[in-house]
Specification:
The chain is mainly beta. It has a single domain, classed as Immunoglobulin-like. Helix content is 4%, strand content 50%. It is built from 1 helix and 8 strands. Strands 1-8-7-3-4 form a 5-stranded mixed β-sheet. A 3-stranded antiparallel β-sheet has the order 2-6-5, with no helix packed on it. The chain is elongated and about 40 Å long.
Length: 103
């Protein structure tokens, strides 16, 4: 299984924002996702912080797009790697993006 970084690069978010990011898996040759899961890693501490930044971790899928639960509870000055694993007809593909907490 390969991991692809999304083309948008690093996103910026503040400590008081809650953003539900969407990831399109069309570039992975997927068209109708069955499910998706998300994990978050603090790149400063190298810790899995999924339960902190995704207190409700229930991604939804529509077509080739996975929409994540709102990302929140970020720490100023930290960068987070958000990994999204999608499943379609038994095939697994993973993409990731980074979010920098600016203030």
């Amino acid at each position: 299984m390969s991991k692809l970084e999304v083309i948008e690069g690093i996103c910026e978010q503040t400590t008081n924002e809650r953003i539900a990011y969407s990831v399109d898996f069309t570039n992975c040759s997927m068209t109708t996702l069955d499910s998706a899961t998300a994990a978050a890693y603090d790149e400063v501490d190298n810790d899995d912080v999924s339960s902190v930044v995704f207190p409700t971790n229930s991604p939804s899928v529509s077509g080739a797009v996975a929409t994540l639960s709102p990302l929140r509870n970020l720490t100023k000055g930290h960068t987070y790697r958000i990994e999204v694993l999608a499943v379609e007809s038994g095939d697994y593909k993973e993409q990731f993006f980074r979010v920098f907490c600016s203030k």
